[in-house]
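Reply to thread "Modeling small-molecule complexes from scratch"

Following up on the discussion above, here's a worked example others can learn from. I took a protein sequence and the SMILES for zinc ion and predicted the complex. Inputs first:
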Amino acid sequence: MENVDLIINARWLVPVTEDQTVLENHAIIIKDARILALLPQQQAKQLYSANATHDLNEHCLIPGLINNHAHTPMSLFRGLADDLPLMTWLNDHIWPAEKAFVSDPFVETGSALAIAEMIRGGTTYFNDMYFFPEATARVVDTSGLRASLGIVVIEFPTNWASSVEEYLHKGHQLHDHYRHHPRINTIYSPHAPYTVADKTLEQIITNAEEMDMPISMHIHETADEISQSIAEFGVRPLERLKQIGLLSPRLLGVHMTQLNDQEITWCAEAGVHIAHCPESNLKLASGFCPVAELQKNNVNVTIGTDGAASNNDLDMFAEMRQTALLAKAVAKDAAAVPAHNALEMATINAARSLGLDQEIGSLEVGKQADIVAVKLSDIETQPVFDVVSQLVYAASRDKVTDVWVAGKQLLNSRQLTTLNESKIIQDAQQWAIKIGSLGQ
Ligand SMILES: CSC[C@H]1O[C@@H](n2cnc3c(O)ncnc32)[C@H](O)[C@@H]1O
Ligand SMILES: [Zn+2]
C-alpha cells in the first residue's frame, strides 16, 4: 500500500476534460502537491493510505477556478462609484481616488481582502493588473494562492511609477524576484490602446518574445474607445494593434465587447485569447462580447471579474452563470455556452491562455492539486439531475466548502487557513474611513 499526502473522497468529480466526464464516488489522490490518481473509492482504499483523508460525500470536486482578469487591490474601492459609464468612472472617480490613496499598504490590504474573497469563492488563480504588485505578491505568497501579476504600463505618472521606463524597470524587478516562485508568474499588462503608445507596445512585444511571456490588455471595451481611436489614429484599436504586431497567441484581450466579423477573423487567425468580463461589462454598460461567435471561430474565450469597483464582487460562480446566460441572449441561441463550456472557460481555457494548461485548469493525473469542493446537498441545489448544470446554473460561491492549492488546504469548512479574516476586515474598515472622509 502506498502512503500519500491526501485522499479526498467525493460524491461527484468533474475533471473538466474534453470528454466532459463526470465521475461518481471517486477519490482523488494527492502526493507532493500533484494529483497522483483519480479512481473509484473502493480501489483507492485498497491501494493508498494517507496522512489526511476527507470524506465529501455530498460534494462535487472541480478544478480551482481561474479569474483571468482582476485588479485585486480595487476591492477597497468597492461601491465607491457605481452606475457610471467607463470613462466617467475612471476619469472623475477612480483615477483621482487612486492618486489619493494607492500605495504599498493600500495594495497589501486590498489584495488580502480580495484574495480572502476569492479563496472563499473557489478561485485558486487570478490574473492581476495593478500598481505596487510587489505588495500583492507578498499576500499571494503567504495566502498560498496562485497568480499572474502584471508588469503594468500606462502612459501617465501614477503613485507607482512616473515613466514608461520606471513601470518596466519595476515590473522587471518583480519578475526577477519571483522567477523561481512555484505559484507566482508575471505577465506584461499594458493598460489599454488609449493609454499606451505604439513605441511602448513595440517594446513590450519584443520583451515578451524574448522572455516568452504573455501580454494582457483592455481592448475594445466600449464604443467610445473605438470612435476615439478612429479620430486619433484613423483606424479602430484592433487594426492599430494588428499593425504593431500585437495580435498573437501571447495576447489576452480583455473585454472585447466591440468586435466586427473582420476583427473576429483576425483574432482567430492570430490565436488571440479573450478574457470576457460579463458583470463589469453589464455594470458599466460597456457592451456585449460576442462569445458564441468567437467560439464558433475557435477563439479561446476565458472569464474574469475585472476589479471589485466595477462588478462589485470577485465571484467566479456568478461570472460563469452570467457568461452562459448572456451568451444565449447575445447569440439568440439557447444552446450557446452550455454549462460545461462555462466551466471550461473558467478553468482549462484560462490556463491555456496563460500557457499553464499542462499544470493547472483540470483535475488530471500529474497536474497541480488545485481543487475546490462544492456542497450540493442544500435546498438551493436539490435535486441533482445534472451535476454540471447545478454548478453553473444553481450553485453559488457560498456552497464552496473547501479549497486546496498545490495540495495545501486554504479553506477548511469555509474557514480560511492561511489568512486572518478578522484582521483583514479591520484593516479594510480603516481604509474605508480614510477613503470615505475624502469624499465628504
Ligand atoms: C495599469 S493598472 C490598472 C488600471 O486599470 C484601471 N481599470 C480598472 N478597471 C478598468 C476597466 O474596466 N477598464 C479600464 N481600466 C480599468 C484601474 O483603475 C487602474 O488604473
Ligand atoms: Zn480591467
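What I'd highlight from this example: The CA atoms of residues 1 and 412 lie 27 Å apart. The longest helix spans residues 421-439. Questions welcome below.
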